[in-house]
Amino acid sequence: MSCGVLAIAEQVNGVFRKVTYEALSEGRVIADGLGCSLSVAVLGSGIKSNSESLGKYGAERILVADDAVLEEYMTDTYTNVIAGIVAKEKPCVIILGASSRGRDLAARLSARLDAPLAMDCIAVRLDAGNVVVTRPMYGGKILAEIMLEGEPRIIAIRPNSMKIAESQKTGAVEDIALDKGSTDLKFIEKKLDTGKVELTEADVVVSGGRGMGGPDYSVIEKLAGIFGGAVGASRSAVDEGWRPHADQVGQTGKVVSPNLYIACGISGAIQHLAGMSSSKVIVAINKDPEAPIFAKADYGIVGDLFEIVPLITEEIKKVKGL
Amino acid sequence: MEVIVLLKQVPSTESFVGISENGLSIKTDDVKWVINPYDEFAVEEALRVKEAHGGSGSVTILSVGSEKAVEAIRTALAMGADKGILISDSAAHNCDGLQTAKILAAAIKSLPFDLIIAGQRAVDGDNYMVGSAVAEFLNIPAVTMVMKETIADRKITCSRTVEGGMVVVEAPLPALITTQRGLNEPRYASLPGIMKAKKKPLEIKSLKDIGLDAAGTGAPKTKIISLKYPPERKGGRMIAGETAADKAKALVKALHEEAKIV
Question: Which residues of chain A have pLDDT under 50?
């Protein structure tokens, strides 16, 4: 096939998100399967020097748009620039991370290009030249296999669901001509807590629910902290105002698939289970031995989380030699 | 202010979702249908925008779906929206996100609007796509995942959530925004509201009525080839122990030696 695979990188302050490496690694697998090349588009300001490192994840060409107008992600500017790259490169597959920015870009791009889009893909396979993706629907209660028809096929992958593989290839960096087109959106300001581990990208998530009894999540934060993990919350905890909306795990919040999910004081409502049951290992701690969460957990402990969680934290410190 | 809300009727998130025998769609017999939760925020925000602008203008609910979706539109009218339009057409069944966006955009072309509000996603297909695509087809700006908005001088300033925080963006009207949890607390329909809603205009239109034929929506570009349940998680084991300390120790031992993740 003469076409290529185009990955779209995502960076914050010059640092690539982990999902960028997942998109590149999966893009490499697709490109090899189709017998075509892999390029990556990197948009931003002052990002050129870091871009070369993307070759390590399989990109043969690293297409860099480095310009002050790309400092902040704005839907219209980024869509215009990517659409320009697509017009020139004519990729048959576009792959990017389904982060909040990636989803926003993918949706607009799909309409601009009249191109099929599958959001939050957790697996991709080639079937006689067709691209078939697996993606959750109904908040993860159902997995759908979707065939994408027409080009370019846009695949937005769910963070933490693809293997990252380094390759022997080195990529060549190319500057691309920038046409930002007409734009309406104006950046005003941003408030980012860059020290915070993103829930959807964390290897370990420790969540607290109604059993927390109030906004004091310090025992949860300490346990998450020793793993460098993230803190989550159930819908009832968020509804009580104990935690911000951004922390909500579940069908109406974020869907997470960490290596380890520790549910503390969470009974396991169906909409919460939908949001975390793709975690690799689940631990549940709850006072109620009948809590439905235990039916989904690999390990369960019946007891008072305020007593048990700090003890677990101490035990893990010992094992980790901290 | 003329505000349009894009609304979808979906199975309640508390419902079990079953796969029908053809393996390509879900069972709908026992499903409890509700307004998509993110669209409820959209209805509420539309009402607040109208109220903040002296109550002039109107809030129009626009939906694509089966005739059953009339219930969801009536609920939004009972919350206080002024009128409803349902595009219901056998040719619009099983539309993918792009096709749905084309239908919505075609319907909107004959309506006056300053602002369109949509849910960030519908919690059935979880596509995160229709709002942005409608904006693209109407050639207007969109700001997604909005937690807060203010309108002044024909401009809307939005705080949108991103990983690790918030970005504030300004767009000229007309514009489209999609909702994020935390934007507002949707009101319940009051009894007088429910009574009034019965008399509010609710039109059901076909694709032909909005000037579209099958060619206008195109063929679906995403096709479901199978649905299955995620691998069943079996309950594992309960960690026993005399004291809390014993249990903690046994758990960490299991995570370290069996699961090998600590």
Answer: 1
Task: Sketch out chain B's domains with CATH numbers.
Answer: 2-217 (3.40.50.620), 230-262 (no CATH)
Q: What are the tens digits of pLDDT across the range B41-93? A: 999 999 999 999 998 999 999 999 999 999 999 999 999 999 999 999 998 88
* A169 and A203 share one domain: no
Query: How many domains are contained in chain A?
Result: 2
A10: domain CATH number?
Answer: 3.40.50.620
Using 50, 70 and 90 to split pLDDT, how confident is the model at B146? Answer: very high
**What is the interface pTM, i.e. ipTM, of the complex?**
0.94
Residues of A in contact with B147 (CB under 8 A): 245
Q: Is residue A79 one of the residues assigned to a domain?
A: yes
A86, amino acid identity: V
The answer to whether B151 and B2 have CB atoms below 8 angstroms apart is no
Cβ burial of B240 (10 Å; 0-12, 13-18, 19+) is exposed
Contact flag A252-B123 (C-beta cutoff 8 Å): yes
A164-188 tens-digit pLDDT: 999 877 899 999 988 888 899 999 9
Say if residue A163 is in the same domain as residue A31: yes
Instruction: Supply the DSSP symbol for B200.
Output: S
Of A74, A110, A304, Cβ closest to residue B129: A110
Residues of chain A neighbouring B223 (CB-CB closer than 8 A): 146-147, 149
What residues in A contact B220, CB-CB < 8 Å?
A: 149
pLDDT digits (tens, 9 = 90+) for A116-129: 999 999 999 999 88
User: Under an 8 A CB cutoff, do A143 and B228 touch?
Assistant: yes
Q: Are A164 and A36 members of one domain? A: yes
Range of the domain at A254: 199-320
Name the closest residue on chain B to residue A114, using Cα atoms.
Answer: B98
HEC per residue, A28-89 = HHHHHHHCCCEEEEEEECCCHHHHHHHHHHCCCEEEEEECHHHCCCCHHHHHHHHHHHHHHH
- Which residues in chain A have their CB less than 8 angstroms from residue B224's CB? 144-146
